[in-house]
Amino acid sequence: MKLEVRGLFWAGVYVFVAVAPLGLALAGAPAQSRGFVVDLSVGLGFLGLSIMGLQFGLVARLQRVSAPFGMDALLQYHRQIGYVALAFVLAHPVMLFAEDPQKLALLNPLTAPWRARFAVSSVIALVALVVTSVWRQRLRLSYEVWQVTHGVLAVAAVALGLAHAVKVGHYLASPWQRALWVAFAAGLVGLLGWVRVWKPIALYRRPWRVEEVIVERGNAWTVVLRPEGHADFRFAAGQFGWLMLAQSPFSPTQHPFSISSSAEEKAKISFTIKARGDFTSGIAAIRPGTRAYVDGPHGLFSTDRDEGPGFVLIAGGVGITPLISMIRTMADREDARPCLLFYANRSWDDVTFREELETLAGKMSLRVVHALEKPPEGWTGETGYLNAAVLQRHLPRHHERMQYFVCGPGPMMDAMDRALPAAGVPEERIHTERFDMV
Fold first, then answer.
1. What is the pLDDT of residues 308-349, one digit of tens each?
2. CB burial class (10 A; 0-12, 13-18, 19+) of residue 116?
């Protein structure tokens, strides 16, 4: 089945599962209506609860599901649809209180029935989940603490929401309606089992060993891994994986990184990681022989998927990681197509892979345009940030036929979202990956 058809299939499954509980609940509701406002609020509550449950499926890293979209795209959708679920869930009680202000008494935990306590607790968990995700850095939550907290709050929000719906019972009166929600809950438990039990067992059987840790420019390190007792790792240039170093695959915290090695190098793989705090600050202390596990490959951000007369690669800082994999792969394959790399960094000493890029530019059809915020004395290249003017000065004729791959920090990505269409690049030829997962 083609990826496009598979994508439509899974999108249809998602929509069906999201609205099925609502349709079945309303179809089996008592004939006597409780009023338009109440029915609408209940409908929004069911939709919000369904979307919350489906969030587990979006991040379960199921290859069959993620292949048509890319895991990175699913993660972005997971983040955005979370706001929709929150809006639906909050609309449910707000509309009930507006319709009958006396229902505000249900907010009193000392006198409220358990169905109301479950509802309030579910909403509190969901709000806390969104707040800790959106303002994680402002709250100074480490990635590891956030990941554990996020999982606990997500399970609590859905479980308490289901308990509330069952306790209310008005729209779940018939056995087949209750059976539906039992199946829904069983599916969530199955997804949790897949993520926390079955997948870690599979990873445990495919360990890796750290062969080397290489110091790179730009406060970065390249961790080279070799498989231990299993077949070589196959991936497409530009893909990423979740990396576990010196920890069990059953650990609640895992870290996504782009693969930086060539896709033609089958015997080992490399991850280049910039020290930015949390887990990454300890990369320099990793020693050869350390056991590791890799969940992947994931993502559609790859030159292997897109044919074209050439490529324009745009990187900012450590966003060079998936792009260097593409460049190394092209060099190993003796790919003669032109490749133009725009690479933005703070200073000349921060340019990761600087010497290798110079060498590769002499061996393949690669041209590198550096842009530095703080250039050294005598610098004659581009200065400041990458923008439309910089692109226009260096893009070749007929550049709109080339494939564009962009990876870097948020502000640079936002600037390229505006600059590339302004330069006449068709939207379907622009491929992006934001390396800040949260």
1. 789 999 999 999 999 999 999 999 999 999 999 999 999 999
2. buried
Please list the alpha-helical segments (H only) found in 261-374: 320-332, 354-361
User: Where do the domains of the chain lie?
Assistant: 3-203, 208-298, 303-434
pLDDT of residue 190: 87
Average pLDDT, integer, range 366-375: 96
* 347 contacts 353 by C-beta, under 8 angstroms: no
pTM of this structure = 0.86
Q: Which fold has domain 208-298?
A: Elongation Factor Tu (Ef-tu); domain 3 (2.40.30)
Give the Cβ contact number of residue 215 at 10 Å.
9
CA distances from 17 to 26, 54, 169, 187, 245 (A): 15, 8, 20, 11, 36
Q: In residues, how long is the chain?
A: 438
Q: Considering only CA atoms, which of 211, 160, 179, 217 is closest in space to residue 343?
A: 217
C-alpha 246/C-alpha 223 separation (Å) is 12
Contact 326, 405 (CB under 8 A): yes
Taking the CB of residue 282, how many other CB atoms lie within 10 A of it?
A: 11
pLDDT (tens digit per residue) in 1-35: 577 788 899 999 899 888 877 776 666 555 556 67
Q: What kind and span of H or E run contains 371?
A: strand 366-372
Percent of the chain with pLDDT over 70: 95
How many other CB atoms are found less than 10 A from the CB of residue 393?
9
- Name the residue with tokens 């979307």: 51
Tokens of 349: 């000493």
Question: Which fold would CATH assign to domain 303-434?
Answer: Rossmann fold (3.40.50)
In this structure, is the dihedral angle defined by the CA atoms of residues 91, 92, 97 and 98, taken in order, positive or negative?
positive
In sequence order, which residues have a C-beta less than 8 Å from that of residue 260 and are 6 or more positions away?
Answer: 222, 270, 271, 272, 321, 322, 324, 325, 328
Check the CA dihedral 8-9-11-16 and report its sign: positive
